[in-house]
Amino acid sequence: MTFLENQNICTWLTCMVGFRLKLINAKNIECYAVRYLENNPAYTNPYIAELAIGPKNGKADYLIEIEIDHLLSKIVARLGYSLSEGSLEYEKRKLRYLLLNELAQAKEHNENIEEKIYSLYQTFNYPEDMSEFVQCSCCSAWYNDEFRERFLAFLTQEKNILFL
Q1: Under a CB-based contact definition with an 8 Å cutoff, are residues 138 and 121 in contact?
Q2: Phi and psi at residue 103, in whole multiples of 5°?
Q3: Which residue has the higher pLDDT, 132 or 78?
Q4: Angle, CA of 17, 23 and 28, to the nearest 5°
């Protein structure tokens, strides 16, 4: 996930929300932690360091997920992120934009873009603002001009709303 490389846009709160939605996996979190420590060598946070090391061998997947979620919660709290409903909704919307934008950027290599977009549409509980272009996607999506125009217009609008 290339958007995880931009730590000005993708924050620890974004990572936590994405992990809880199962859109960002444990390996992505580990890589994010390593990059974070590389980019902030003077910053010490034992929770980030623990994520960077990765899970201990022999643990069941569900225990690893619980541990990562716990560490992400500690990091978010220590860094002072707001966990208000508004903040969490903003992060979900930002994450949705980042994932959709990544699909748009990779369109040349993305044969199943319609399915991936629809999967995100489902994951985010069928948001009304996406329905306009998702309904066009049944017509061989990316190769359909109407779909492509609506999708790109949606991304531009989302970027402006999110101030990215």
Answers
A1: no
A2: -65, -40
A3: 78
A4: 90
Q: How many CB atoms lie within 10 A of CB 46?
A: 11
- At residue 57, the 3 state secondary structure works out as coil
Query: What's the pLDDT tens digit per position in 4-44?
Result: 887 778 999 999 999 999 999 999 999 999 999 999 988 88
In angstroms, rounded to a whole number, what is the distance separating the alpha carbons of residues 130 and 128?
5
**What is the distance between the alpha carbons of residues 121 and 96, in angstroms, rounded to a whole number?**
9
Q: What is the pTM of this model?
A: 0.85
Distance between CA atoms of residues 3 and 103, nearest Å? 11
Question: Tell me, what's the pLDDT at 110?
Answer: 62
* Spatial separation of the C-alpha atoms in residues 59 and 55, rounded to whole Å: 8
Of 111, 155, 164, the closest CA to residue 130 belongs to 155
Q: What are the tens digits of pLDDT across the range 91-146?
A: 999 999 999 998 888 766 666 777 888 889 889 998 998 887 776 655 555 556 77
Tokens of 121: 């549409």
What's the full length of the chain, in residues?
164
Give the single-character DSSP code of 136: G
CB 91 within 8 A of CB 13: yes
For 65, the token pair is 């997920």
